[in-house]
Amino acid sequence: MLLWLTFVALAVAESAPEATPLTARDVQVKYTDPQLQRFFPPKAQRAGIEGMAQVLCTIDRNGRLADCEVVRETPTEQGFGGAALKMVSTFRIGPQAKDSSPTAGRRFSYQAKFRIGPPPWGPASWEKPGAESAAAP
């Protein structure tokens, strides 16, 4: 069974909620685990259930995500929230957004969609086209 995950990331300045939110295109996310599909919850995978989870974290000065919490998960009771928390623990955020503003101390909202089947960009690769590097789509 082929599994794939899609991600939507949104970082928002904690101290300036009125500021325009940063999008996934505005920050550099390094995936330290190249096999992100391994985070698909086993219970849901066995049952053929797809889902999503959104987590909210703070970016620390080393680019790690801290104080993460699940803010949304569907369906519930399938392990998608816990899987998303484990997944983001492997992420590293670059020290600056692409607009050169610092990322440390900002809130980071991350949505992971867990899907069964080949990714829409083709089954030959788990990387989305246009990835900046092998470790950072």
Keywords, please?
2 helices; 137 residues; TolA/TonB C-terminal domain; mainly beta
Structural notes for this entry:
The structure is a single chain. The protein is mainly beta and 137 residues long. The protein has a single domain, classed as TonB (TolA/TonB C-terminal domain, 2-Layer Sandwich), CATH 3.30.2420.10. Helix content is 11%, strand content 34%. It has helices at residues 42-47, 80-88, and strands spanning 3-12, 22-23, 29-31, 51-59, 65-74, 91-93, 107-116. A five-stranded antiparallel β-sheet has the order 2-1-7-4-5, with helices on one face. A two-stranded antiparallel ribbon has the order 3-6. The two termini are 23 Å apart. Mean pLDDT is 76; it is low at 7-21 and 123-137.
Q: Give the overall silhouette.
A: elongated
Count every beta strand, where a strand is a DSSP E run of 2 or more residues.
7
| Multimer state | single chain
Name of the CATH class: Alpha Beta
Structural class category: mainly beta
CATH architecture: 2-Layer Sandwich
Side-by-side strand order of the widest sheet: 2-1-7-4-5
Number of domains: 1
- The helix fraction, in percent, is 10-25%
Per DSSP, the total helix count is: 2
CATH superfamily name? TonB
Mean pLDDT level = 76
Strand/helix succession: EEEHEEHEE
Low-confidence stretches: 7-21, 123-137
Q: N-to-C terminal Cα separation, in Å?
A: 23 Å
Q: Calculate Rg over CA atoms.
A: 15 Å
- Biggest sheet record: 5 strands, antiparallel
Q: How much of the sequence is in beta strands?
A: 25-35%
